[in-house]
Fold each of these.
Amino acid sequence: AQKVTQAQTEISVVEKEDVTLDCVYETRDTTYYLFWYKQPPSGELVFLIRRNSFDEQNEISGRYSWNFQKSTSSFNFTITASQVVDSAVYFCACSGGGADGLTFGKGTHLIIQP
Amino acid sequence: GAGVSQSPSNKVTEKGKDVELRCDPISGHTALYWYRQSLGQGLEFLIYFQGNSAPDKSGLPSDRFSAERTGGSVSTLTIQRTQQEDSAVYLCASSSSGPPWETQYFGPGTRLLVL
């Protein structure tokens, strides 16, 4: 079984600021996968990224970047130059080797103020 | 459509009634998942289908919950004798293949309210 902790319940920043969302995971699996999803006010979960435990390379996609560190069991997500449209709830999730689906954190509600 | 679809989008029912929630996965996706999202419990995994088979049903909250998938496509989640604590958003997802660590794409959900 996995456990995912998103300690930040809510973050509020002003537009154009950079913001980092924290994610800490626990798993006994040697092979596992980490995900980030975005849930805008419309409610539909939108896939952002998937990484496997063997690939610690950081990834950048436009204004989004992810920092995966196995040593600290963290998979943090940074938005650079935030925009109002980034306002949403962001979920971090983990999947191991079993048939038990994704284990989600409680989510971080990100508010970008104009 | 190209995405996962769910119906109904909203359902209001009375305590004790049975409800059926439907999920239509992305065409060609062999794996299908049900989750529940509630204020108190967050996002919980319920069940996973690979084709028409569910390897593990232990994630279903009680024996009032059942799910089936036919023809490797549409899935139905049935809740019998609904209770107020069943009120939640029920989300369906699909992936191109099992296992569950493949990227899952989610539908818009069914918002269930039990009065």
Amino acid sequence: SAVISQKPSRDICQRGTSLTIQCQVDSQVTMMFWYRQQPGQSLTLIATANQGSEATYESGFVIDKFPISRPNLTFSTLTVSNMSPEDSSIYLCSVEVDSGANVLTFGAGSRLTVL
Amino acid sequence: GDSVTQMEGPVTLSEEAFLTINCTYTATGYPSLFWYVQYPGEGLQLLLKATKADDKGSNKGFEATYRKETTSFHLEKGSVQVSDSAVYFCALKDSNYQLIWGAGTKLIIKP
């Protein structure tokens, strides 16, 4: 199965600033997924990132707030822009290891706290 | 829309106790069902899955049976260990091939 490295693992940010989270996979994958895990809540899919095309965003998430890059088949970034305390969450990168079976491998997550 | 409901945590047990974490779902059609586990400081990883009614998924001593009549996929283990302490997530794959997640249940095992 794939090994995913995410960084930063955690950060404390000021309101109004932006932070970019990096996700590196040890093998080439077609799709990468970005999730948000708010305290005490379930995982919510933010967007799906395919190499060479625009990311596909889920309802309630927009590119201006969460721009995503996918420059190659092993790397992606998620930026959380103009942060507010409501953006305090764990952000997770994941990839599908068994195409069509929706079995995902996840990074350890990036825990952001916005003051 | 489709949804997954898990029992609230934390669930605290002594070592060697029997574990049940309840998971029920609402879905159209016949979803696949999953349990993922998140150990402290690590990413989520698949624990087990079942793709059709009456299937039983099993791994590492954990089991869950896909019960269509009760729309449930409860996670069980006969004798838990301290190393089982983690957060457990129930999920389903809906008709749009999207994963729908439960809120997670934190399990604490005391020696």
